[in-house]
Amino acid sequence: MRDLAEIAADFPAEPDWLWLGWFWKPVGQLRRRAGLAEVAAEARGKLACVATPFANVCGGPGLASDAAMIWMDRAAAAGLLPLAPAYLAFEAGRDAPEPEKVLRYSDLVIVPPVPGWQRSACVWRTVCLALRDHKPVYLLDGGA
């Protein structure tokens, strides 16, 4: 019989935020409706992976990169050290972000309220990888 910890690490292939919250919110790894100032107060000076959509964004990868850059700027202004896989992928001319490379060094993940984040395979993959590594994930609420 599988235990709850094993089931919690068996992430669905498609984004299922309700399922994710059911397993990960009670242990404090997934924090919903967090404010950026609140996250920064808790994690000031830490390296934050900024998970934003990349593929299938209206406006293409360039607009996706711009959104990631805006949120990196906001996170930096709040006191975090941000890196966004979507921004790095665009700047490097890649077809897809590689969150594993950023998460290797990141202390936490922030998911800003960029349109389409709930359906984004890129955001989902980043969040699942972070939780698997027991890194906190903050789903930001609203603006800066």
Could you walk me through the main structural features you see in this protein, from its secondary elements to its overall organization?
The chain is of the alpha/beta class. It has helices spanning 4-8, 17-24, 36-43, 60-78, 85-91, 99-103, 121-132, and strands at 30-34, 47-50, 81-83, 108-111, 137-140. The chain has a single domain (30-140), classed as 3-Layer(aba) Sandwich (Rossmann fold). It contains 7 helices and 5 strands. The chain has a 5-stranded parallel β-sheet, sandwiched between helices. Helix 4 links the parallel strand 2 (47-50) and strand 3 (81-83). Helix 4 packs across helix 5 (85-91). It is globular, with a radius of gyration of 14 Å.
Rg is 14 Å
SS element count, helices? 7
What would you give as the CATH superfamily?
A: Hypothetical protein PA1492
Determine the structural class based on helices, strands and strand pairing. alpha/beta
What is the 3D form?
A: globular
- Main beta-sheet annotation: 5 strands, parallel
CATH architecture tag = 3-Layer(aba) Sandwich
Query: How many distinct domains?
Result: 1
Indicate the CATH topology: Rossmann fold
Q: Which band does the percent of strand residues land in?
A: 5-15%
Tally the beta strands. Answer: 5
| Helix proportion | 40-55%
The pLDDT mean sits at 90
The low-confidence runs, each spanning 5 or more residues with pLDDT under 50, are: none
H-E string: HHEHEHEHHEHE
CATH class: Alpha Beta
Task: Give a quick set of tags describing it.
144 residues; alpha/beta; Rossmann fold; five-stranded parallel beta sheet; 5 strands
